[in-house]
Write a structure and sequence with these properties.
About 60% of the residues lie in helices and about 5% in strands. The chain is built from 19 helices and 8 strands. By secondary structure, it is mainly alpha-helical. The radius of gyration is 28 Å and the shape is globular. Its cofactor is heme. Keywords: Membrane, Transmembrane, Transmembrane helix. This is Cytochrome bc1 complex cytochrome b subunit. Its EC number is 7.1.1.8.
């Protein structure tokens, strides 16, 4: 059996021999084509973003053949009759030409827009999967930071692309961008003049955004995605806890042919979904909005979903400002713009980037982790993540406070006041509810381990009582549950002389000790009813009693 597993398929052996005879690369090709990848549906979430990015590059290249990044004014003379003779920028006119006069142009333009939305959404969901399972821990902290940078750049890429058609809707967003930029202390005017080439709206913003959108930001994205993939490949993929899975192996199927076939089919499926959306669901009908003029703004203007939380922050922020030296002439800090522009993004992105290091500081956990956690098994981390999602969600929802007010017949002021309260109350409630849910799910797992699962068989006891017979859970389900480890925590107990451990002294040390005690430890122990527990010591270093024997750390040695 082992000979069959180790035998190199002919499809790999032939190209490997060809390359080895000419480049000496046979060993590299054989090793990497037989690399083992774990099999779990959640690992495919990041691939949605990757395939969407590929579609973005292809459709964007198509659009560059006809798009004219110029703000020079012309009279429209295209095939869309309602706008004939209207003065507009060449950028808007070329966008209309792509939509109405280029064969397949509208389909490709809508595919590009839908792929952009799916790209950002895929990255967000992938980041949540990594966060909730703890896949950012050592040795993957650098890859996590690269992911946070990718998400930040994706937002900037979306903003620059959204503004290019120069229609009335994108112009409203551009006006907000200018207001945010110019409000920044010291550097605001310089940034604004650099982007717009003078007083707003200037004549250069479209051409400069175009260069950022098709050249600079995509180049950085491509480099970071490549680095992200290479690091993932070198460090090997994380895997869910289960039968035979340890930190020393990878249980799954080889890259070729299993994973390659699955990835190819999944890419085609992603392409089919984006093509279907572009065909049957209209998005961004710029011809209905008309060309942008700084004096006009359309009612009900909404940005794409990924910018909704910044829009919501602007809408619910009170009109605060600081006049330096008591006079507006000496300088004004418009907090009503600066805080919404910088604080929500700063909290979310900075929090994401620092979290692996803050968690390690709190728990003192310096081990490598290749088997991830189930979210329920680290209740504080999961609760923090749900609080951040709720914070984002409230801001995102309030980005449409005018639509909410109009459709639900609620006063706009009351909608705004409610948002100001919810932005503080809702994340706290989300934390408490999520924490209790995680403990409840842990108790459910403990009950399954201790008493088994319902069999559907009703048994009558000698004294007349009817009970349902419970049977032990399946081996793979039990192994999945027993993959639980106590959350590590620092040694915080004082010695016999009453002296705290080194590093736990002083105000910061005492705070760290309290945080570690609250964050770490075992909340709900697993117990099978016979005193065996789950095979882990309090420090979390024990090995799972159902783990397979390690094969020397080679991630190609175990197939399933």
């Amino acid at each position: 059996m082992s000979d069959e597993l180790n035998k190199v398929p002919k499809a790999i052996a032939g190209p490997s021999t060809f390359l080895d005879d000419r480049l000496g690369g046979a060993n590299f090709l054989k090793r990497n084509l037989r690399k083992i990848f774990p099999d779990h549906w959640s690992f495919l979430l990041g691939e949605i973003a990757l395939y969407s990015f590929i579609i973005l590059l292809l459709t964007g290249t198509f659009l560059t053949f006809w798009f004219k990044p110029s703000m020079g004014e012309i009279a429209y003379d295209g095939s869309y009759a309602p706008l004939k003779g209207v003065m507009m920028s060449e950028a808007y006119a070329s966008s209309l030409e792509i939509s109405f006069d280029v064969r397949g142009g509208l389909l490709i333009r809508q595919m590009h827009h839908w792929a952009a939305l799916l790209f950002v959404a895929g990255m967000m969901v992938h980041a949540l999967r990594v966060f909730f399972t703890g896949a950012y821990r050592k040795p993957r902290e650098l890859n996590w930071i690269i992911g946070v940078l990718l998400l930040t750049l994706a937002l900037a890429e979306g903003l620059t692309g959204y503004s290019l058609p120069d229609d009335l809707l994108s112009g409203a967003g551009l006006r907000i961008t200018e207001g945010v930029a110019i409000s920044l202390p010291l550097v605001g005017t310089y940034i604004t003049f650099f982007l717009f080439g003078g007083e707003y709206p200037g004549e250069d913003v479209i051409s400069r955004f175009y260069a950022l959108h098709i050249l600079l930001i995509p180049g950085i994205l491509l480099a970071l995605i490549s680095a992200h993939m290479v690091l993932m490949w070198v460090q090997k993929h994380t895997q869910m806890p289960g039968k035979g899975r340890t930190n020393q192996n990878v249980v799954g199927a080889p890259f070729y042919p299993a994973f390659m076939a699955k990835a190819g089919a999944y890419m085609l499926f992603t392409l089919a979904v984006i093509s279907g959306l572009a065909t049957f669901s209209q998005i961004n009908p710029i011809w209905l909005f008309g060309p942008y003029t700084p004096a006009d703004v359309s009612a009900g203007s909404q940005p794409d979903f990924y910018m909704g939380f910044l829009e919501g922050a602007l809408r619910i922020m009170p009109p605060w400002e600081i006049n330096l030296f008591g006079t507006a002439h000496a300088g004004t800090l418009p907090l009503s713009v600066i805080i919404p522009a910088l604080v929500p993004m700063g909290i979310i992105m900075t929090g994401l980037a620092l979290y692996p290091f803050l968690e390690r500081w709190v728990t003192g956990d310096h081990r490598e982790h290749h088997v991830v956690d189930r979210p329920r098994n680290n209740p504080h981390r999961t609760s923090i993540g749900m609080s951040a999602i709720t914070f984002y969600g409230v801001l995102w929802l309030l980005g449409a406070n005018d639509e909410i007010s109009a459709n639900f017949h609620i006063g706009l002021n009351w909608t705004t006041y409610g948002g100001r309260v919810l932005i503080f109350v809702a994340p706290a409630l989300a934390y408490l509810i999520t924490y209790r849910m995680c403990l409840g799910l842990q108790r459910s797992d403990a009950a399954v381990i201790s008493h088994g699962v319902e069999s559907g068989v009703i048994k009558r006891l000698p004294h007349g009582e009817f009970i349902e017979v419970h049977t032990p859970p399946a081996d793979d389900i039990e192994a999945h549950m027993r993959g639980k480890e106590p959350v590590p925590m620092l040694p915080v107990e004082e010695d016999t002389a009453g002296i705290p451990p080194k590093g736990m002294r002083g105000p910061l040390g005492k705070l760290r000790a309290r945080m570690s005690k609250a964050y770490g430890g075992e909340k709900i122990p697993l117990d099978d009813g016979h005193g065996h527990g789950h095979g882990h010591g309090e420090d979390g270093h024990g090995e799972d009693e159902h783990a397979a024997i390690s094969s020397g750390g080679d991630d190609r040695s175990l197939t399933h």
